[in-house]
Amino acid sequence: MSQNYLYLKNATYIEPFTLEVRQGNILVQPGADGKIQFVQQIPDDAQVLDVQGKIVTRSFVIAHHHIYSALAVGMPAPKKQPTNFYEILKYVWWTLDKSLTKDMVLASALTTAIYAAKAGATFIIDHHASPNFIRGSLSTIAQALDSAGLSHLLCYEITDRDGHDKALQGLEETQEYLKHNQGLVGLHASFTVEEETMKKAADLAEKYNSAVHIHVAEDRFDQDFTLYKWQKRVIERLDYYGFVKNPKTILAHAIHLNDNERMILKFGKAWIAQNPESNLNNNVGFFSYQGLDRSRVMLGTDGMHSDMIQSTKAAYFAGLPVEPQDMAEIYARLRNSHRYLQQNGFKGDGQNNLVVLDYQNRTPVTQQNFLGHFFFGLSSRDVLHVISQGRLIVKDRKMLTIDEQAALQFAREQAQLLWKKMQEL
Ligand SMILES: [Zn+2]
Q1: Which one of 54, 143, 329, 358 is at 20 to 30 Å from 416 when CA atoms are compared?
Q2: How far does the centroid of ligand 1 lie from the alpha carbon of residue 416, in Å?
Q3: Nearest to 265 by CA among 241, 294, 227
Q4: Number of continuous H segments (helices) and E segments (strands) in the chain
Q5: Cβ distance 335 to 17 under 8 Å?
Q6: How far does the centroid of ligand 1 lie from the alpha carbon of residue 336, in Å?
Q7: Helices 404-424 and 102-118, axial angle in degrees (round to 10)
Q8: For the segment 207-236, what is each residue's pLDDT rounded down to a tens digit?
């Protein structure tokens, strides 16, 4: 019996919420909601990983990702240089996602899984778009992440930006996926979703006891266009459909809000996913928590990368010019994702998801100063082993579950095909 269980010998465990430090041997239960337990004795026939006093803590959740953008790194410049946010979408991301085939999506998911796992993330909340490969796109991603041993909460980005037929296909793909999997109903952003599509998305979310995952007021354009076309501000429009009151809803960005919208959010139940580096990259403004319930803010990467230590540091440093920042508050945003998943009954993010850090600390690490080490010392380079659902998936910085080199080679080939297609579109 005991050989099925993983034991971490001689761990320095840092409790992810209280930062309490505890030394000892840890029994890691397997399974979707497995627990951990400190034990004195390790059975002779057990699977043991001697971590030699290294820091062990909870692995990370990426609260807003775009796996589909994985092959964008290093791609040629777009045919027209974008001059504003709408043009960034049109000439870069909407050209990329329209060119994606099944193999390109698969390569994106496999390589994102590698990058995420090796940076200590074991759970990805993704927002996917591939308008010319909609049907089966979510299960393609799910299978790739499953094969790597990562847990996930996926959605397809439903939108009318390519016509109503594509919106219907997005709704269909979502329905097919939600029949058998935990997931969300993805919507692009208020300004590209017509009333009829919004209504159908709300019905779908209700039917499958799910919620929407949508970009919100990332740029001022979303507010201006929504107000012009539907005579409501973005949060007012989403609230009308009941999205803000749903505790499973994820609103990505939420940058350009007025006081009334902040009030609606404060008294609602939806969660916000902040993506600091993406906001800097697109130069759209920066997230401010004033007037919001900060316990419902999580951190994502928005497809920029899969490194949550980097994203958390960026939220802190880039936020400094905007308003006073508190390390504990920003670190809590990293950990709020666990509460979001747990409170809503999503599977795969139990206590048995762990990272072992090979952190060469030059000063002592304590409960009181761990945040100083997190923001000014640690990096994803220090991630040595990763355990997902009680199973070792990264050991000595190498994936145990999938062939890394084969996946990377496949991705490089797919990237060349993708970039060629994008130039021809
Ligand atoms: Zn996004």
Answers
A1: 143
A2: 24
A3: 294
A4: 14, 18
A5: yes
A6: 18
A7: 130
A8: 999 999 999 999 999 999 999 999 999 999
Q: Can you give the length of the chain in residues? A: 425
Residue of 166, 164, 139, 169 whose CA lies nearest to 152: 139
- Output the CA 252–ligand 1 centroid distance in Å: 6
| Integer Cα distance of 236 and 244 in angstroms | 9
| Ligand 1 midpoint to CA 64 (Å) | 6
**303-319 burial, b if ≥16 CB within 10 A, otherwise e?**
bbbbbbbbbbbbbbebb
Judged on CB neighbours under 10 Å (0-12, 13-18, 19+), 398 is exposed
Cα angle 206, 154, 209 (rounded to 5 degrees) comes to 15
In whole angstroms, what is the distance from residue 50 CA to residue 335 CA?
26
Kindly report the pTM of this predicted structure: 0.97
The answer to whether domain 2-59+349-399 and domain 61-343 are alike in fold is no
- Give the separation between CA 198 and CA 241, rounded to whole angstroms: 8
Residue ranges covered by each domain of the chain:
2-59+349-399, 61-343
Q: What spacing in Å lies between the alpha carbon of 365 and ligand 1's midpoint?
A: 35
* Rounded Cα distance, 102 and 356, in Å: 34
CA of 218 to the centre of ligand 1 (A): 9
- φ, ψ for residue 73, nearest 5 deg: -60, 120
The Å distance, Cα 303 to ligand 1 centre, comes to 7
Residue 273 C-alpha to ligand 1 middle, in angstroms?
A: 9
For residue 144, the CA-to-ligand 1 centroid distance in Å is 20
> CATH number of the domain at 61-343, out of 1.10.10.10, 3.20.20.140, 3.40.50.1100, 3.40.1170.10?
3.20.20.140
pLDDT digits (tens, 9 = 90+) for 259-310: 999 999 999 999 999 999 999 998 888 888 888 999 999 999 999 999 999 9
What is d(CA 371, CA 380) in angstroms, rounded to the nearest whole number? Answer: 15
Distance 63 CA to ligand 1 centre (A): 10
Q: Using the structure block, give the residue that is written with the tokens 């040595």.
A: 384
User: In CATH terms, is domain 2-59+349-399 a member of 2.30.40.10?
Assistant: yes
Token pair in block for residue 114:
């590698």
